[in-house]
Amino acid sequence: MIGRRISNTLRPFLHGLAQRAARAYVVGPDLADAMRVCRSLDAKGLAATICAWNGEDDQPADNAARCLNEIKAIALEKLNCYVSLKAHDLRFSQDLIAQVANQARDLNVGIHFDSMGPEAADQTFSLIDDLRRQNGKVGCTIPSRWVRSLDDAARAAREGWRVRIVKGQWPDPHEPGIDARANFLRIVDRLAGQGREVAVATHDPVLAREALGRLRANGTASELELLFGLPLRRTIPVAKETGVPLRIYVPYGHAWLPYAIGQVRKNPRISLWIIRDLLTGGRSELDRLADGNSRC
Question: Beta partners for 284?
């Protein structure tokens, strides 16, 4: 009862903090903001992923147009960068997704499908299967919170898809208590020696080191992918230790606040990061990196 009362008292306080500081966890509202960061990262030899965080009211055609603009911008500047998107934001429209995939193929830019809830997985994988026949630079995301992910990893390895492994936001509806960390490594083992290219996406340095070590030991091309704005100091060195490239996931858009507040509620540590940033007047480590004030 006391804990619940404290939680209710802190919620408005944390909400206010999120409103003030959550902008550190997204690069800005526009593609130009994302390109500025990606350009700076590219100059330091770092790869990037661009992803628009769309609002719930954004229309599929507008989201598709945003993807097309991202692809054009990456190709124009010849950046080591690919576009990440959610098929749900395009309402799984075959026409819209084909437009994005065809332009990506023509301009030689990779596209990658983020994961949504488990109910969207089969439809997303079917889309990837179709697109791979037209564009070989298509990838998928496999969350470790799902039991089905071991079979999905085997399928991705068999089909030669690029894979990003994440813990994921949505739990397995049939086994919500699954150990996401242990299953992360099971997915790694399923892909090691089999997958075409695997991105390990975690800010847990111990997990990242173990996962990348297993992939490298089996000759699997791999990289470490980190989310813009989250603490990097402990995880960045893992890329150098394991001899893999570092890629930064760079989100932009107007949906930053709901996401940030949701993350604060699910992960109290984020509130501590926000408080730290406010007290120090500091921007995120990656923001300083992108502006050239720190190095990996």
Answer: none
Rounded-to-integer distance, Cα 4 and Cα 1, Å = 5
* Residues comprising the chain, all counted: 296
List pLDDT tens digits, range 66-123: 999 999 999 999 999 999 999 999 999 999 999 999 999 999 999 999 999 999 999 9
Contact by Cβ (8 Å): 137, 114: no
Tokens of 257: 């606040």
* Residue 153 within a domain: yes
* Amino acid type, 20: R
Asked if residue 3 belongs to a domain, the reply is: no
Rounded distance, CA 280 to CA 151, Å?
A: 45
* Per-residue DSSP letter, 117: -
Query: First-to-last CA distance in the chain?
Result: 45
Give the tens place of pLDDT for each residue, 50-81. 999 887 789 999 999 999 999 999 999 999 99
The answer as to whether 89 is a domain residue is yes
Neighbouring CB atoms inside 10 A of 236's CB total 24
